[in-house]
Amino acid sequence: MKALSSLQVLLGLAVLGGSVALNVVLARAAFRYYGLLNDTRLDPFGLQKGSAPPSDRDTRPRVVVIGDSRAGAWKPPLSRESTQFINRGMSGHTTAQALGRFQQHVADLEPDLVLIQAGINDLKAIPLFPDRKTEIIEQCKANIQELVSRSEKTGAKIVVTTIIPAGSRIPLARIPFWPREVDEAVEACSTGIRTLASDRVVVFDTAPIIVSEPNGRVKPQYQRDFLHLNAEGYAVLNRQLTPVLTTLLQ
Description:
β4, α7 and β5 (201-204) form a beta-alpha-beta unit. The protein is 47% helix and 12% strand. The chain is an alpha/beta fold.
């Protein structure tokens, strides 16, 4: 009985310790998201961040990137000697937020080429608002089309990428918030993006380069975390993107 009691005590302490650790993790996450929520209220379009004026215009073609953290992490495909590369990707931003800051972060810079990667932050909200699924998907597609349209009005050429899918490894905490419907929404929006190709708009399809079949998610070797690519992932994309940009900027 004494041994059993000791075992029960140890199990109880283990459960208590695990509970305390989990609560600490949840509290930190709650504090982080509360901070992000209020930061968004203070600066909904991120106009107070990431808008330092670029260096003076010179003879190099100017490429401006607009979108979310996937865009923000995109390294210049071309050398800085040949191209002025200005990145205006912002972590957590939706397509609506990208539109809200388009004038200041893109149009005012008079780009020669605009690179657009956005949409995942819209679609990952679907599990939170399941009754608005169709609305979220259609609005995401409409916003990306509007980003393309506004880019065209600047006189720039445009490269719009399909939405990079999520990774193959799903963290335990995300499983309840990432049903297969989100992956389907990513593909639905990317299908819409593929229809935007025109004389001045190139659709850069990321799926054939970094996605594995049949699950339709980013290959593990290109995955930094569930929603982001690592350096190798961007490198393999840039190997395909470099000749596209070179041709467009000639």
